[in-house]
């Protein structure tokens, strides 16, 4: 192996040092770099392209379901933030403040938005006159800042992160619930149909919901290292924000009523989950749905075959491009095929086409799947359909592996020893009856830093919150008191 290819390759192992491995994949696959200020990252073109793929999918679904995009200022006056007390208390330790503009001290401090309810809600109040203005559905794509003093982990933990935040107002609680489930369903869909990651749906326990919310619903994804990622959240805010910001409307009977509001968000943490879930010790692995390059063609020639091989390769590239695939023909002279294979593997190109003189003579192409190196030889005439099928197969492989990981890693436990032992040994989710007392979560958290990440819900998707199903066995898995709820414990990102 030359020095050059060693530098190119991943040196850490996913199974032994997942943290170091992840950081190396992010940098070497050209997704992001660390900024000069701790806690911030620079998103590079290939990383941003992945974020755009998520944006494109979600933004289209939002618009099909009545959402309009808007943009609000990144600063929120302190007096606005203070109008909803739960928001202030919930975010206070993490808010970054602007106190000076130019050389002058500001009369009122400005918060760099940690989330935008407090600046959007007062305008929704202005814009809502009658029931005919509702539901009002606004969304913005932006970044927010939460000044956490933790180690930087690109896309998982950064002080500033990209996200979308949706904010809606409704005439009835039922309408607000429909909204909450619509958005949670779209988040589930983006994970399962775009990112090839199955998720669990449920709600956060009372003590861990969004500040000011009635209910916080969540989609959770299990990473191969056994930790859970909160994939996206959708909150029913009840009337707390509408009351704090006077979002009222004249109902059909002309009576003044208070609206119900929701908010919902998905951040670039989804990119972290994507990278962590599928990638391996050779580098990045991407589902074809989001890969900036879906197919790379690597021609393999000698001096006397170069012209034929290149011409044949160009023909295939043109056909695939015409069919709408994102194709790259890697005809660089200065690199040998082995180097090219490694580089495209590192960058996560899902499908490689190898074309040498034999393929030209036989009118074929050799196809290699990135995730497992499975090879197939396909006819030149059928290449467009074949590529389409192989890309679909690659997506299914990635999804199936992630699904298997999830299915194998939900375990039941009925005592603190069993909960601790199971998470300690296997990671994953531990499902247990729970009495509802936060102290029981605390007891587990203190010992192994696992918490209740989710509670399953019955009847979800309707016009209510649904209910947490009753456990088969009575008795809280931690304290033994009567328990009528189920909780999923896990370590989390
Ligand atoms: Zn308990």
Automatic annotation (TrEMBL):
It is found in: Cytoplasm. Residues 47-287 form the Aminoacyl-transfer RNA synthetases class-II family profile domain. Its EC number is 6.1.1.15. Pfam families: HGTP_anticodon (PF03129), ProRS-C_1 (PF09180), tRNA-synt_2b (PF00587). One of its GO terms (molecular function) is proline-tRNA ligase activity. It comes from the Archaea. It catalyses: tRNA(Pro) + L-proline + ATP = L-prolyl-tRNA(Pro) + AMP + diphosphate. GO terms for cellular component: cytoplasm. PROSITE patterns: AA_TRNA_LIGASE_II. SUPFAM superfamilies: C-terminal domain of ProRS, Class II aaRS ABD-related, Class II aaRS and biotin synthetases. Keywords: Aminoacyl-tRNA synthetase, ATP-binding, Cytoplasm, Ligase, Nucleotide-binding, Protein biosynthesis. Its main location: cytoplasm. InterPro entries: aa-tRNA-synt_IIb, aa-tRNA-synth_II, aa-tRNA-synth_II/BPL/LPL, Anticodon-bd, Anticodon-bd_dom_sf, Pro-tRNA-ligase_IIa, Pro-tRNA-ligase_IIa_arc-type, Pro-tRNA_ligase_II_C. GO terms for biological process: prolyl-tRNA aminoacylation. Catalyzes the attachment of proline to tRNA(Pro) in a two-step reaction: proline is first activated by ATP to form Pro-AMP and then transferred to the acceptor end of tRNA(Pro). Consists of three domains: the N-terminal catalytic domain, the anticodon-binding domain and the C-terminal extension. Belongs to the class-II aminoacyl-tRNA synthetase family. ProS type 3 subfamily. Homodimer. This is Proline--tRNA ligase. It comes from Haloarchaeobius amylolyticus. The gene is proS.
């Amino acid at each position: 192996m030359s020095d050059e290819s060693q530098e190119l390759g991943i040196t850490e192992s996913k199974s032994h040092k997942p943290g170091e491995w992840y950081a190396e994949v992010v940098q070497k696959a050209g997704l992001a770099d660390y900024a000069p200020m701790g806690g911030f990252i620079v998103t590079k073109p290939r990383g941003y392209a992945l974020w755009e793929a998520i944006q494109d999918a979600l933004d289209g679904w939002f618009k099909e379901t009545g959402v309009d995009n808007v943009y609000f200022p990144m600063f929120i006056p302190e007096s606005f933030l203070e109008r909803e007390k739960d928001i202030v208390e919930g975010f206070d330790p993490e808010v970054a403040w602007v106190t000076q503009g130019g050389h002058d001290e500001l009369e009122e401090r400005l918060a760099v938005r940690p989330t935008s309810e407090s600046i959007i809600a007062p305008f929704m109040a202005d814009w809502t006159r009658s029931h005919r203005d509702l539901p009002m559905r606004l969304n913005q794509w932006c970044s927010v800042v939460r000044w956490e003093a933790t180690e930087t982990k690109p896309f998982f933990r950064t002080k500033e992160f990209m996200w979308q935040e949706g904010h809606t107002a409704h005439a009835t609680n039922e309408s607000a619930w429909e909204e909450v489930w619509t958005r949670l369903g779209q988040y589930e869909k983006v994970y399962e149909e775009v990112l090839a990651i199955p998720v669990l749906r449920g709600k956060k326990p009372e003590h861990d919901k969004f500040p000011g919310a009635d209910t916080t619903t969540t989609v959770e994804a299990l990473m191969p290292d056994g930790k859970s990622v909160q994939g996206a959240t959708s909150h029913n805010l009840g009337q707390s924000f509408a009351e704090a910001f006077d979002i009222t409307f004249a109902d059909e009977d002309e009576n003044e009523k208070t609206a119900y509001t929701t908010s919902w968000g998905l951040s670039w943490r989804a990119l972290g989950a994507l990278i962590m879930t599928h990638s391996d010790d050779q580098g990045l692995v991407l589902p074809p749905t989001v890969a900036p390059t879906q197919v790379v063609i690597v021609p393999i020639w000698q001096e006397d075959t170069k012209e034929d091989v290149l011409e044949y390769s160009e023909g295939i590239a043109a056909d695939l491009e015409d069919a709408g695939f994102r194709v790259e023909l890697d005809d660089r002279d200065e690199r040998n095929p082995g180097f090219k294979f490694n580089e495209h593997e590192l960058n996560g190109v899902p499908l490689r086409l190898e074309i040498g003189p034999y393929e030209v003579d036989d009118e074929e192409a050799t196809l290699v799947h990135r995730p497992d190196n499975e090879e197939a030889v396909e006819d030149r005439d059928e290449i467009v359909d074949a590529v389409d099928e192989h890309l679909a197969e690659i997506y299914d492989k990635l999804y199936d592996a992630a699904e298997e990981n999830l299915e194998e890693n939900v375990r039941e436990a009925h005592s603190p020893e069993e909960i601790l032992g199971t998470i300690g040994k296997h990671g994953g989710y531990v499902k247990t009856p729970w009495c509802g007392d936060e102290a029981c979560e605390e007891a587990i958290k203190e010992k192994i830093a696992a918490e209740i990440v989710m509670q399953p819900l019955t009847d979800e998707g309707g016009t209510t919150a649904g209910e947490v199903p009753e456990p088969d066995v009575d008795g809280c898995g931690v304290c033994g008191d009567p328990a009528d709820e189920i909780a999923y414990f896990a370590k989390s990102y």
